[in-house]
Amino acid sequence: MGITLNLQRARPADVHVGRSPLAELMSALHIMAEPDHHPEAQRWTRRLETALAPSLAHEMSALSPLWARLRCRLLFPLELPLDQPFEDELRHLEKLPLEEFVGLCSQGVLGFREAVPPAGSLLTDPEAAERYVEQCERRSFRRGELAHDLVASPEGLRDRLLCFLESCAEAFFASEWRSVRDRLESAAARVRADIRRRGLAEVLAGLSPTAVVSRGGSRVRYDKLAVAEIEIGPRPLFLLPSVHVWPHLTVKDEECHPVVLQFAAREGDTADQLTQAELRARMSALASLGRMELCRHLLGEPITTTELAQRLGLADTQVSRTLRQLRDAGLIESEREGKYVYHRLATNTLLRLGQDVLATIMR
């Protein structure tokens, strides 16, 4: 499984890197809608929840299918330029042709990569609209309600969404954007410079530990549940850094619109993110009772291989082999002092392992 970006026809002019306040707000709303996916943000989420007015919290819940798992394409930039003010992004959404609004919104409300009726039929054919509402109801009652509102009054739903987004800006996002915008600009500037220096394929691969470059740098594949090959050039690619999107790498591929890749603007980029192979190695290392017992002896004061062997009643070679497996999995740290090598458990790695499991799965 995976999403492949085909770069054979990509030119520098096809790739645009910049910020989007609206996309960043959607990432924040996604955390609020699915907090179990973002345990690292629990403190931020709780603080925000206590500050929200009940009416805004209720509307946030009712509209949440738009920024849950699939994330509605409406809330990403639809055209150049990037780095527009939040108010300008909302005005563009307000002026979007109604049929285009319905087409993008209908897929977001369904929240799943499954065919939906064309926007024209949702606006003019009652039977197609009814089938679409039933399609959404099968996913959830909340999605069914939102689908009904969309086909019954698309203008009304758009006005409701715009009012909600403006209320979010007043309640919390304006201050949040001020705190993250410089960091996002730094991330965008770094990516632009890296593309010029290292090339597009290498930079795209560096945005996720799951990425694989193939065919001489003409393709980059990300390990995702969806399966697709997306051609870049002449169709544009928008690269959007985000503080709130981690651990996800979001790829949007709606026809007739630019491809969007929203990536985590984290300190150190992806250096601290696990690949699936690394996660499997750590889980496998801990699955052995013998290695788990050895870990208990490594907790605390650093210890040599010989002393470990004496404690466990094993040969030095056997302990060395086990230590190597744990070290390869990143679960122990070894340091030479004089003629001795001392080992200790990497407790920070173990403390993070639960969060890393979730982050690796959710990416």
UniProtKB/TrEMBL annotation:
PROSITE patterns: HTH_ARSR_2. Signal peptide: none annotated. It comes from the Bacteria. Residues 271-363 form the HTH arsR-type domain. The keyword Transcription regulation applies. Keywords: DNA-binding, Transcription, Transcription regulation. This is DUF5937 family protein. It comes from Streptomyces javensis.
